[in-house]
Amino acid sequence: MNGPATKDGLLNEDANRSPGLELTFLGSGTSAGVPMIGCGCGACRSSDPRDRRGRPAALVRWPDAGLPDTEPNRRAFAFNPDQAGVRQVMIDAGPDMREQAMRHGLSRLDAVVYTHAHADHVMGTDDLRRFNAAMEAPLDVYAEPLALETLRQMFRYIFEPLRNPNQTFIARLIAFAMEAGQPIDLHGARWTPVRLMHGRLPIVGLRIDFAGASIAYCTDVSTIPPESWPLLEGLDVVVLDGLRFRHHPTHMTVDRACEVAESLGARRTYLTHISHDIVHAELSEQLPQGVRLAYDGMTLDAATLAESDLTYEGTASGPAAQQGHGSASAPVDLPDRAVAD
Fold it and tell me: Is the peptide bond before 35 cis (omega within 30 degrees of 0)?
């Protein structure tokens, strides 16, 4: 198998990739997704792919020429060259995570960071086991203590494997507790959990700073506490909850999100966690300057504000299309370390 060239034991960055802090919207919908089961509204019957919204999640990537030269990494880069020379951290792992990972040709992650432990943000946790198999390594996960405790209750068989009657194929996760307002370093990027309120439930948004560029991802938010506003200053990009126009007790409305966007003053704002009340093409024309609707598959660069999306532009995505490299490569076999039950 021919992998990327190496130097001094490190895998070099893919020459076809522009370095920078990037965020990809893996899912931009609500807990029910769009289209919703049994609904025939305009958004649910829309033929516009931007109205097809998976459960909310994001992928954050930034360059790192110091990735170790290991066989699992070589396989990952051969499987999808867009994974070469970059760190990849997923925000939340909801029930659509498997499809989202396949759509973007993901076979390696450096970590998963959870904003909170509601079902639409964590129910893909079991599928993280495939990353363990592909990477031949455990996976780091980060969450607040309350969310970690909920995860342990929901996925006891993962976090307490010695209690399982059979030795089965389960995710191998290393859990780390994080605290709002206390930054953590993830492979050279600064991640700061930001206290947000999801109705009466305290959750976290995430501010990511790398090489002078910054993104804040604030989904499922209804209010931003006063102490959190300073942590959201000076941003290139902010992602806000923009559920719908009608009031909701645990989510921002579109109008409220636009007001918050103006107050924060980021260079650009994106709305996510979008319900079926909103038809993308209709609302996009009405939003204030600098505010845009996210959609599944959109990738943005924090420094340049450039946007791209292979699927919406009509180009096949996934490893077979080399994520925009233009031609399919020979199949790459990833290891299957256990029989999936």
Answer: yes
